[in-house]
Task: inverse folding
């Protein structure tokens, strides 16, 4: 296996590291997107450890920085952020395809990286190049089940009520403050998107953690949020209650990497799989 | 900002194990700058500001190399393999690479936290470093280790991060997201800054009294305080990037002034 550094893209504005196994032709390539503003090595170097493990299994990989994140620059094109991301991922697929020979890809994204992967995968023609996606702490919605599980144990806790009232009083005193943020896709849209991705043949892996317990708190919530699509054999779901959002403990990272390796080898087996390092 | 095309990512060193990004300057220069990263989560948090600093310095005519030590960032090696002595060797290898690429006679080093400590140690070990600018350098390794241990212990019990506190055994041998070998731990614990090689400029954003720095490094070091203070050891900011425009300006103007001195 060898790693190569590239400056690439339609404006040579992107920086990435390709991991190219000695064998593995004809399999899928795995592309990792930035988690928030963390550069391509990922939180606590998660992306480096993950790509090297996948390389050892025989999968070509690319960890890279999207436009204006990490070491990548801007193109100067007049595009929406979503259009930029789709074009950057297209550039990444072209690069990895050119150097590894693979023609189909799996995207991996954590947090906002998962949202970006989702936005790429929801494009109507994404299935022509995408074979699957791994969403780590992607979209989630406070369902009735979530509220029951979250609020019921707190209902008779006087200290919590006092804290809640104090917070509300503070918010009231502060008045209205402008909020600058990107609204998440509505629940019904994400539900339809997932159905459409599966219908187009994509394999999906949804891994959520206790790090987002303010809006996701049980494995059952996958079905509450997204409906029966999560029962489809093409969709895997996993809820890691004890783990934090960015996998700060080495054991948690190792378990995630093991899981992703197993998921890939199950859905995209390679003829000459490498041995686990 | 320089054009991204002027930032070249590549692997170098023995066996191509080290990853670096070379920031080309518009014209040849007698001086080039090596950016020595800190370790662990400080490295992650400083990535952005190191790039900003590199672009600024390259923009004012000094070629820059920033790089990852073995076991860090995009370089080869696992995170558990980081070793202080290997880091010093890597600094020497990076200085050689920078000289070869830029043609510069003098290599100046910048480092933050442990990156500054290692730049000073490398300069003392004749690693081809002619001058060091240090930002909040770690001067007492034992105190640094104690702080990292305390933060790691607080983090495993942090219920903003975890639904329930984690077992001590699950968090042992790590500092804030990164495994730490007993060798590295001992090496950092044994580090004490000495005045044998003092930085030309010391940037303090931890509100440490200037007299303490003076006592440590002597009169030749210029000391500048930066506002606001940098929350290096604030668990709530563990994953927030460290950004400081005053830092970039201070380093750039220091080396601009010295070019004409």
Result:
């Amino acid at each position: 296996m060898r790693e190569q550094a590239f400056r690439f893209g339609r404006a040579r504005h992107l920086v990435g590291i390709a991991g190219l196994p000695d064998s593995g032709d004809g399999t899928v390539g795995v592309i990792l997107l930035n988690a928030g503003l963390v550069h391509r090595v990922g939180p606590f170097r998660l992306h480096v450890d993950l790509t090297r493990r996948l390389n050892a299994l025989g999968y070509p990989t690319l960890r890279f920085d999207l436009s204006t994140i990490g070491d990548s620059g801007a193109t100067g094109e007049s595009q929406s952020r979503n259009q930029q991301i789709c074009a950057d991922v297209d550039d990444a697929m072209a690069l990895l395809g050119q150097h590894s020979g693979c023609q189909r890809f799996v995207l991996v994204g954590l947090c906002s990286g998962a949202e970006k992967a989702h936005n790429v995968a929801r494009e109507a023609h994404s299935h022509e190049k995408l074979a699957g996606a791994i969403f780590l702490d992607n979209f989630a919605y406070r369902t009735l089940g979530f509220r029951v599980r979250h609020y019921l144990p707190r209902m008779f806790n006087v200290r919590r009520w006092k804290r809640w009232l104090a917070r509300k009083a503070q918010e009231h005193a502060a008045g209205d403050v402008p909020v600058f943020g990107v609204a998440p896709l509505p629940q019904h849209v994400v539900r339809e998107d997932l159905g459409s991705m599966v219908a187009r043949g994509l394999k999906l892996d949804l891994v959520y953690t206790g790090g987002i317990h303010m809006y996701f708190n049980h494995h059952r919530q996958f079905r509450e949020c997204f409906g029966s699509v999560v029962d489809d054999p093409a969709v895997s779901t996993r809820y890691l209650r004890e783990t934090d959002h960015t996998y700060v403990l080495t054991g948690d990272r190792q378990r995630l990497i093991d899981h992703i390796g197993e998921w890939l080898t199950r859905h995209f087996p390679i003829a000459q799989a490498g041995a686990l390092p | 900002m320089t054009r991204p095309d002027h930032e070249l990512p590549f692997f170098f060193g023995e066996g191509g194990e080290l990853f670096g990004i070379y920031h080309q300057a518009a014209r040849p220069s007698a001086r080039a700058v090596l950016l020595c990263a800190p370790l662990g989560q400080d490295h992650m948090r400083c990535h952005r500001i190191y790039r900003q600093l590199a672009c600024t310095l390259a923009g004012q005519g000094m070629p820059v190399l920033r790089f990852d030590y073995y076991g860090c960032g995009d370089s080869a090696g696992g995170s558990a393999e980081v070793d202080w002595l290997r880091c010093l060797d890597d600094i020497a290898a990076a200085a050689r690479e920078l000289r070869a690429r830029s043609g510069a006679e003098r290599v100046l080093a910048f480092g933050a936290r442990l990156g500054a400590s290692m730049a000073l140690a490398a300069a003392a070990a004749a690693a081809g470093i002619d001058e060091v600018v240090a930002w909040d350098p770690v001067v007492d390794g034992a105190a640094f280790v104690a702080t990292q241990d305390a933060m790691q212990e607080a983090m495993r019990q942090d219920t903003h991060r975890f639904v329930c506190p984690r077992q001590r055994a699950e968090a042992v041998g790590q500092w804030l997201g990164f495994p730490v070998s007993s060798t590295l731990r001992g090496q950092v614990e044994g580090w004490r800054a000495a005045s044998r090689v003092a930085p030309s400029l010391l940037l303090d954003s931890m509100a440490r009294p200037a007299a303490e720095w003076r006592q440590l490094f002597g009169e030749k070091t210029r000391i500048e305080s930066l506002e606001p203070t940098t929350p290096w050891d604030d668990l709530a900011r563990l994953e927030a990037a460290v950004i400081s425009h005053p830092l970039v300006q201070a380093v750039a103007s220091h080396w601009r002034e010295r070019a004409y001195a």
